[in-house]
Design a protein that fits this description.
Blueprint lengths: L1 H7 L3 H24 L14 H13 L4 E2 L6 E4 L10 E5 L7 H16 L6 E2 L5 H13 L9 H4 E2 L4 E2 L11 H18 L8 H21 L7 E2 L2 H4 L7 H17 L19 H10 L2 H11 L3 H20 L7 H24 L9
Parallel strand pairs: 4-5, 6-7
Antiparallel strand pairs: 1-2, 2-3
Helix pairs in contact: 1-2, 3-4, 4-5, 7-8, 10-13, 10-14, 11-13, 11-14, 12-13, 13-14
């Protein structure tokens, strides 16, 4: 507590140590996010807004909104609204005069609004912080910021917790442990399976890394985001279930099919007339492909990637049925072309869907 007060008072030694800790932490985060294929244009933490937080406190004082608890000396605002069943308050100043997390988050929101001129903020934070963001919006509204009038559910994008995570190292798990374990298990499986198409050691490691990431990402996104779920290595690393491995296997299978029939010049699927595709498996696949934009819009508007994941699972199942029934080799030329175009369309949609989920589609496994 005393150390934080020194930072807020501008103590150079305390600030330099904080900067060092921050730089080390951000660099480690950067490595992990880079491994997940994620890059940030800006990195802003609430700790950056210690100075601006006192501007917020002064503004609240000027408007007569900041109250003090006579017993504890803590500064707070009354955030209660007529529809509330119980009073709601937000603590903003410690008894020693330093700011709190909520104060700095208010300052950060104001600063980001000024810098980026954005109309909406989305905070992707777990369910347990819902009260914090309710307080944040109400403080901003008290200060007269009209842009904070959005519905709470559109600002706080909540998600559930992961239960039952474990690794070889023990019960305390960090992201790196999970990524390394997933890659290790996939690499071991590739080396023992006779059907593995990738033979070079370097390539096997890259594919194992991609498969492990696919498995982790899909397991995390396939359920409604507010739901807690149990982490399961067995379920996650199953090629036959609703997993990222199943989707990657389906994409690689489609790529192989198209590559092996490269001598057939397929027409563009745009405006094509597939009169030869009369089988039920073909019709169901065409109908499902036609729903892609609808699913994307729903996922986007509801902030629910699970809609896209479930769509891709169904696409994979329909592709596998069609693959078994709609043979390209040995079929009449026009029929073969139409079937191949259908499969290429399915591969394209699957690849786009995977990329939207942050997954690199594999052509060989």
């Amino acid at each position: 507590m005393k150390y934080f007060k020194r930072m807020e008072e501008g103590d150079e030694e305390a600030l330099q140590f904080w900067k060092l800790c921050r730089e080390v932490s951000v660099e480690e985060y950067r490595k992990m996010y880079e491994r997940l294929g994620i890059n940030f244009t800006h990195i802003h933490g609430e700790s950056m807004y210690s100075k601006q937080s006192h501007d917020v406190i002064n503004d609240l004082k000027t408007k007569g909104l900041l109250l003090y608890d006579v017993k504890t000396g803590v500064g707070y605002v009354d955030l209660t609204q007529p529809q509330d069943n119980v009073p709601l308050y937000g603590n903003l100043v410690k008894s020693d005069g330093t700011s709190l997390y909520l104060t700095r988050d208010v300052a950060a929101a104001i600063d980001r609004r000024l810098k980026f001129s954005c109309e909406k903020f989305h905070y992707v934070v777990e369910n347990g912080q819902h009260l914090h963001f309710k307080q944040l919006l109400r403080v901003l509204r008290l200060l007269g910021h009209w842009w904070a009038m959005h519905l709470l559910d559109n600002v706080h994008i909540k998600f559930g917790r992961v239960e039952g995570m474990s690794s070889r190292q023990g019960d305390v798990v960090i992201l790196k442990d999970i990524l390394d374990e997933a890659r290790s298990q996939m690499l071991q499986r590739m080396r023992t399976k006779t059907t593995t198409k990738v033979t070079e050691e370097k390539d096997q490691e890259a594919v194992a890394e991609a498969l492990g990431l696919s498995a982790i990402i899909v397991q995390d996104l396939k359920e409604y985001r507010n739901n807690n779920y149990k982490f399961s290595w067995e379920r996650m690393l199953n090629f036959n279930g609703d997993t990222g491995l199943f989707l990657q296997y389906t994409h690689a299978r489609l790529h192989s099919l198209v590559s092996n029939n490269a001598d057939l010049q397929c027409p563009s699927s745009v405006g094509a007339d597939f009169k030869s595709l009369q089988e039920n498996s073909a019709k169901r696949l065409v109908q499902h492909l036609g729903r892609f934009d609808e699913v994307l819009l729903r996922s986007y508007s509801e902030f629910e990637p699970c809609h896209l994941v479930q769509y891709l699972f169904m696409l994979g199942r329909l592709v596998n049925v069609a693959h078994d029934e709609l043979h390209v080799k040995g079929a009449q030329l026009e029929i073969a072309k139409d079937r191949l175009t259908l499969f290429e369309s399915a591969r394209t949609v699957l690849a786009i869907g995977l990329k939207l989920l942050g997954i690199n589609p594999l052509n060989h496994i």
